[in-house]
Specification:
By secondary structure, this protein is an alpha+beta fold. The protein is 18% helix and 35% strand. It contains two helices and nine strands. The longest helix has 23 residues. The chain is globular and about 45 Å long.
Length: 163
Amino acid sequence: MPTLELDFLPHLQSHEASTLAPDTRNRTVEVILLPHSSAKAELWDAVVHVSSDGISTSEELDLSEHFPNGSFSVLFATVPNTNYPLPINYRIYVDNFTREVPVNTSVAAAFNSFWVGNVVIAKYARGNSYIDEAFANMHRQEVDLLLTLVGIWLRQQWDGISS
């Protein structure tokens, strides 16, 4: 089976000023949170900071409450172990592991798998352009299937880290 090269994006410790000017259209979106301190996943309202330079717009999730030391993220666009595209793209955020973080009890309970730190899954809007919003609310109907796919992905990542 071919190995998948992932491009993890580093995220700052907290939302810092973008190079674009602040916008007054900050909003919230529902994301999935797999908290280290709970035995179950939950939907959580994340603040989206919107910035604009008059030509382009940028959106950044403020996840500092769950990642006080910063995070990494990866685009989640295919079914794990396949090249089959998902109908919607998602972004998975994980702790950047710069400090010791607790074992994630929600990942252990849901997937019988090991992980440390929080995990957040955000949904991208379908028609992402400079006018459209980049992030969209997570629909309850997609949560169970998405959690199953992310559980497979998390296990693969941990197996790769620990081997």
